[in-house]
TrEMBL record:
It is a multi-pass membrane protein. Belongs to the cation transport ATPase (P-type) (TC 3.A.3) family. Type IV subfamily. The active site is at 417 (4-aspartylphosphate intermediate). The gene is atp10d. This is Phospholipid-transporting ATPase. It comes from Dicentrarchus labrax (European seabass).
Length: 1276
């Protein structure tokens, strides 16, 4: 052993430079807080053994209760709810004799019922969790036993940190393990992470580097290495640490070395790993946070109204207390027994608390429970809407946030990503005139003949030595083209497979089409070209000769072991083949274009699985030119080059894409030159800045300048056509330069603290002075019905902003395509490089908007009315780039930016980062106080989705990160229109009206008890038996509001889709506004006065008792409340009628049975025979009928407005849940068309009224003809 040892191995992350470091262990609490130390569980080191015992085992327990803890713990949890505390307080208060209102036992009924139902629900849910935990904990896996020297079957719950676990194909991973062995000879395995993130594409994992070769079974007895890693966390994409061997050598650990719990092993026969996180410390368990919870805006408004109800209750109770005190003070010679020892003030104090008990239902605590039930019903119908189902993906909408459905009906600002959200994210790749069209079913390949002609020189027996002036490409140009397509094929993370070949197998390299001498001749001729000025000469004394570099590829080689004679035979055979092709290059070009190469025809069709559609499109584009990626392993790539054949490219390092660098790089050893080459692809704005003109021959500089100029022209052209652009570049490294960079890279990879910063710095150090190779343009087609959806959303009053990372020209082109930008819109462009320039530019744009608004208004008024309809008026659209956005979001400028943005119809933020997206959404949400919605499909949209009031993820081509972070998940952008305009409108309308109805119901019934206090000395007495008083709101009138809250529809779905303007009703909070609360309370006061005093005057002078007096009042109140619901509803089905009948029948059935059989059920009163006597008299029915009609007459003649537009109120009735109100619906549609064509100054609903008057003149109402029709049927 040397004092300093360096060792180089190969792997997915390249050459690993290992350094000797001292081994230290601090088994202290401070050490545990900083990082985790893991060693084999059979270690003889006492310190390590004790440390392993401190970690959690693999047993999981997601249950909340045990047999002993259920009762106290469940009660404790339920007491955290204010409603339960309120009911318990009232029940306890009723046990005090001086303030009791009725029997204490009866007062316990509501709270006992609520607590029992909740407890049963909780214990059922917990039992299901217990069964799931029991099943998972008893799953079996194979764990290595040091005593038995073999693997034994062991339950998951018994697995501990430090255990060696062996898994086979299709087995589920029991804990987070570090991969030590794979049966794959290249040390890789594949896992499926569907249980974690919903993604079904396979992920590749790599055995820890610097371990023995992965051919035979790992010898665990000789494994004495120690692992230092970060403490458990929930970041699925990060794992930092290092493995230290007994000799002091450290090897960095990465996320690609970690197998996560609940993932599934695929396409790998056997893997072995050591457990580093177990049980609840695994990343899967730490990410198991359950359903998302957000508070809706409606709930926050409801809290204010509940406080008003509390104030009303206190006023009523104070009135009763003061009235009782005054009544006692003025009482002279009472004819009944009165407690004369209690002072009037103290008696009033007691009555205050008695009134609190009697009038308790004034506070609608049960409304919160009802809202949750209604939301579950609404989610059920949203989830099962066939219009939101994607048959192609077999995907339906997912409702992940259970309590913000009504917020879907109040969205004012929509922030959308572009790629994969507005577009298909199924790519078409273009470079120069190359076009490779990809779709889900087929691929259309249309190579550019000019590029094919140039590439064909690689197949030609005569290699070009000219400078390209004679029509033939120069050797430098051919080299550039070859490198360009090679970069497209290998600068990615694409996994290759075929129908007859597993994904983890790298196919055998076929015999190159050219012989060794031909390849050497070709690149020798290249070396005489000006290209030598760009590429350093091949270093002499390289550890591998040209021959060994090209052909000695181990198991992937095809000529290894052949003798010279065989090679010469192959050479002569190739020469014969070339002789048959000397008829000219034209036939070769046609063969390449048609793809008639017999060798290619015999191959299986290659299947590419990429993390993004961009990568797949570029690999397919390279394949169209016969630069084919045929296989991938952790150490090498197998690539077919035209005219050369299959070559193994040694893969040294992958620097993955990130949003900070905006690029991706691979470090490889070139298969032909043996040099270390960095291929980089990324955003054009970044690559163009990182590339520079090479020093050397003048011809090389001229050619490179020409390339930059042509590249920029292509970039501009692609952007104008709406393409997403990327630049491809390369850099050749000297061996010494690479070694220096590698040392720093390995130090960064083995670091635990500040690892991301160090890796970023290392990547940026490598990706400099790049040589530009070319550019690509990726066409991303719009999804179906995107323009129609955006137009409908704009007509609904929703401002749509597009936040994208693409170029400005690309974003503008897409905005025009999806009708976010209209031909008559004026475009404002904000692009500057400093804060002062940004401030000046924003002021200038604000002045431009102010001066332009007047002229646009004149133009709009003078133009065609049809073009000036809602959502299509001319206006301004702001386009701002990412650099300017940085300045605009600063504290000093954000108010100016926001003011300018509010004056624009739409805003397009291009070249924006994920952080900027979330900052823009937060700025608009907080500063304007509006409801925001963010929609995206990729990981770069997660922060924006989480910041918005409502976040929607699209399950597209970029994984499931956005879906997992969203409140709702859809499969297509077009589903937004139905989700917002229909379901959002319905949910908000239903809940808003149900809340107002609940408040009305409670206030109306409580007032009946309050009016009675004026006739009983404010004593807190009631005119009903206590059972009816308790069950009236708890049972008899509780179910109808739930049914109406789930099934009621104020407007049919077809009408809402055809008239998005109706969405503005909820958007501007015209359904549930503060004054509507007081209108509802006043209505309840009026109805309670009628319901109380009509029976009072009808029975005045008679000898009826208190219960007999209360009988018609209760019956009338029930009928009024139920019929009031019928009047308020806009949809009546058999379900509604059944619930109404059952509610009324349950009341009358209960009171009749109570009157027949109850003798002492409600002391001190005796209800026996009261109801039967009352219901046998005609006066009872007359009083009930008269009371009901008088109470509901104002509500019937002047219904509460449901749709506000101007001063006209519209209301729709239908007798079927699925029916469309034909005549009224046609009138509404006709009226809106009338409004568009004839009455711009009128509101839509006023236009409906005008249309109705016009139609009454003609005697019929018909749907209007299309624009431009000359017919006048049904018009004035």
């Amino acid at each position: 052993q040397h004092e300093h040892r360096s060792k180089i191995t190969t792997g997915e992350h390249g050459l690993m430079y290992s350094l000797k470091c001292p081994s230290r262990l601090h088994s202290t609490k401070e050490h545990l807080r900083k990082k985790r130390t893991v060693a084999p569980s059979s270690t003889e080191n006492e310190e390590l053994s004790q440390l392993l015992k401190l970690y959690k085992n693999n047993k999981i327990r997601t249950t909340k209760y045990s047999l002993l803890s259920f009762l106290p713990k469940n009660l404790f949890e339920q007491l955290h709810r204010f409603a339960n505390v309120y009911f318990i307080f009232l029940a306890a208060l009723n046990f005090f004799t001086v303030v009791e209102a009725f029997q204490p036992e009866i007062a316990l009924v509501p709270i006992i019922l609520v607590l029992t139902v909740t407890a049963v629900k909780d214990i059922w849910e917990d039992y299901r969790r217990f069964k799931s935990d029991h099943f998972i904990n008893r799953l079996v896996c194979q764990v290595y036993s040091s005593k038995q020297k073999a693997y034994i079957d062991q339950c998951w719950k018994d697995v501990r940190v430090g255990d060696f676990v062996r898994l086979s194909c299709n087995e589920i991973i029991p804990a987070d393990m570090l991969l030590l062995y794979s049966s794959d000879p290249r040390g890789v395995c594949y896992i499926e992470t569907a249980n974690l993130d919903g993604e079904t594409n396979l992920k590749q994992r790599q055995v820890v580097l610097d371990l023995p070769l992965q051919g035979a079974e790992l010898n665990l007895e000789s494994f004495h290495s120690r692992i230092e890693c970060e403490n458990p966390n929930n970041d699925l994409s990060r794992f930092r640490g290092y493995m230290e061997h007994p000799n002091g050598v450290r090897v960095g650990l990465h996320n690609n070395n970690l197998l996560l719990r609940s993932c599934t092993i695929r396409n790998t026969e056997t893997v072995v790993g050591i457990v580093v996180y177990a049980g609840h410390e695994t990343k899967a368990m730490m990410n198991n946070s359950g359903p998302r919870y957000k508070r809706s805006h409606l709930e926050r408004r409801l809290n204010t109204d509940v406080l008003w109800c509390v104030l009303l209750l206190i006023i009523m109770c104070l009135t009763g207390a003061i009235g009782h005190g005054l009544w006692l003070k003025n009482l002279k010679d009472p004819v009944f027994e009165v407690d004369g020892e209690t002072s009037p003030a103290l008696a009033g104090f007691y009555v205050f608390w008695t009134m609190i008990i009697v009038l308790q239902v004034l506070i609608p605590i049960s409304l919160y429970v009802s809202i949750e039930i209604v939301k579950l019903g609404q989610i059920y119908f949203i989830h099962n809407d066939l219009a939101l189902y994607n048959e192609q993906l077999d995907s339906r909408i997912q409702c992940r946030a259970l309590n913000i459905t009504e917020d879907l009906g109040r969205i004012q600002y929509l922030f959308s990503d572009k790629t994969g959200t507005l577009t298909e994210n199924k790519m078409v790749s273009c470079f120069s005139r190359v076009c490779v069209c990809l779709s889900a079913q087929a691929r259309e390949v249309v190579p550019d003949p000019e590029l094919v002609r140039k590439l064909s020189w690689l197949c030609s027996p005569t290699l070009p030595l000219s400078d390209g002036s004679s029509g033939t490409p120069s050797s430098l140009e051919v080299t550039y083209i070859t490198d360009f397509f090679l970069a497209l094929a290998i600068c990615n993370s694409v996994v290759v497979s075929s129908p007859s070949q597993p994904r983890h197998m790298v196919p055998e390299a076929r015999t190159p089409l050219k012989s060794l001498e031909e390849i050497k001749l070709m690149f020798q001729r290249f070396s005489f070209s000006p290209f030598s000025a760009l590429s350093p000469p091949l270093i002499k004394g390289s550890p591998r000769s040209f021959t060994s570099r090209l052909f000695a590829r181990g198991k992937t080689g095809s000529l290894e072991g052949r003798d010279v004679g065989q090679a010469e035979d192959r050479e002569s055979e190739d020469n014969n083949i070339k002789d048959t092709k000397t008829n000219g290059a034209r036939q070769e070009e046609e063969d390449v274009i048609r793809g008639v190469d017999s060798e290619s025809d015999s191959d299986d069709e290659l299947l590419y699985e990429a993390e993004s559609p961009d990568e797949a499109a570029l690999v397919h584009a390279a394949q169209a030119y016969h630069c084919t990626l045929r296989g991938r392993s952790a150490e090498s790539l197998l690539v077919d080059l035209p005219g050369i054949g299959s070559l193994a490219v040694q893969l040294l390092h992958i620097l993955p894409f990130d949003s900070n660098r905006k690029r991706m790089s691979v470090v490889v050893r070139h298969p032909l030159s043996g040099q270390v080459v960095v291929y980089t692809k990324g955003a054009d704005s970044v690559i163009m800045d990182l590339s520079e003109t090479p020093k050397g021959a003048e011809q090389a500089q001229e050619i490179y300048s020409h390339i930059r100029e042509q590249t920029q022209k292509h970039l501009d052209s692609y952007a104008r056509d709406g393409l997403r652009t990327l630049c491809i570049s390369k850099k050749i490294l000297e061996e010494e330069e690479y070694e220096v960079w590698l040392k720093r890279q390995l130090l960064a990879e083995s670091s635990i603290e500040n690892r991301e910063e160090l890796l970023l710095e290392s990547a940026q150090r490598l990706e400099t002075n790049l040589t530009l190779l070319g550019t690509t343009g990726i066409v991303d087609r719009l999804q179906e019905e995107v323009p129609e959806t955006i137009e409908a959303l704009q007509r609904a009053g929703i401002k749509v902003w597009v936040l994208t990372g693409d170029k400005k020209e690309t974003a503008i082109n897409i905005a025009y395509a999806c009708k976010l930008l209209r031909p008559n819109d004026q475009l404002l462009t904000a692009s500057c490089g400093s804060k002062d320039a940004c401030a000046a530019l924003l002021e200038q744009l604000k002045l431009e908007v102010q001066s332009g608004e007047g002229s646009l208004t004149v133009l709009t008024a003078a133009g065609d009315h049809e073009e000036s309809s809602l959502g299509s008026a001319a206006g301004f659209v702001l386009v701002i780039d990412g650099r300017t956005l940085d300045w605009a979001l600063q504290e000093e400028l954000k108010s100016d930016f926001l003011e300018l943005s509010c004056r624009c119809n739409a805003v397009i933020c291009c070249r924006s980062t994920p952080l900027q997206k979330s900052q823009v959404v937060r700025l608009v949400r907080d500063q304007l106080g509006v409801m925001t919605l963010a929609v995206g499909d990729g990981a770069n949209d997660v922060s924006m989705i989480q910041v918005a009031d409502v976040g929607i993820g699209i399950s597209g081509q970029e994984g499931m990160q956005a879906v997992m972070s969203s409140d709702f998940a859809i499969s297509r952008f077009k589903h937004l229109s139905k989700l917002l305009l229909v379901h959002g409108h319905w949910c908000y309308s239903r809940l808003a009206n149900m809340i107002l109805y609940f408040i009305y119901k409670n206030v109306m019934y409580v007032n009946l008890l309050f009016w009675y206090q004026f006739f009983c000395g404010f004593s807190g007495s009631v005119m009903s038996n206590s059972w009816v008083l308790i069950l009236f709101n708890l049972l008899f009138t509780s179910v109808p509001p739930l049914i109406f809250g789930v099934l009621d529809r104020d407007t049919p779905a077809d009408t809402l889709m055809e008239l998005p303007e109706l969405y503005r009703v909820a958007q501007t909070s015209k359904v549930y506004v503060p004054y509507m609360f007081w209108v509802t309370v006043l209505d309840a006061f009026y109805q309670s006065l009628v319901c109380f005093f009509v029976p009072y005057f009808a029975l005045a002078g008679s000898d009826v008792g208190a219960l007999s007096f209360g009988s018609p009042i209760n019956a009338s109140a029930l009928l009024i409340i139920l019929l009031h619901q019928v009047i308020e509803s806009r949809t009546l089905t058999w379900i509604h009628m059944l619930v109404l009948v059952l509610s009324g029948g349950s009341y009358f059935g209960f009171v009749l049975l109570f009157s027949l059989f109850c003798v002492s059920c409600s002391p001190p009163t005796n209800p026996l025979g009261v109801e039967t006597l009352q219901m046998s008299q005609p006066l009872f029915y007359i009083v009930c009928a008269l009371t009901t009609v008088m109470a509901l007459l104002p509500r019937y003649t002047h219904p509460r407005p449901h749709v506000h537009c101007g001063k006209f109120t519209h209301k729709t009735y239908t007798t079927s849940g699925a029916g469309v109100p034909g005549e009224v619906g046609r009138l509404l549609i006709y009226g809106l068309t009338f409004f568009k064509e004839h009455s711009v100054s009128q509101s839509p609903m006023c236009a409906v009224h005008s249309a109705y008057e016009c139609s009454s003149l003609t005697g019929k109402v018909t749907q209007s003809e299309p624009a431009g029709s000359t017919g006048n049927t049904g018009r004035c």
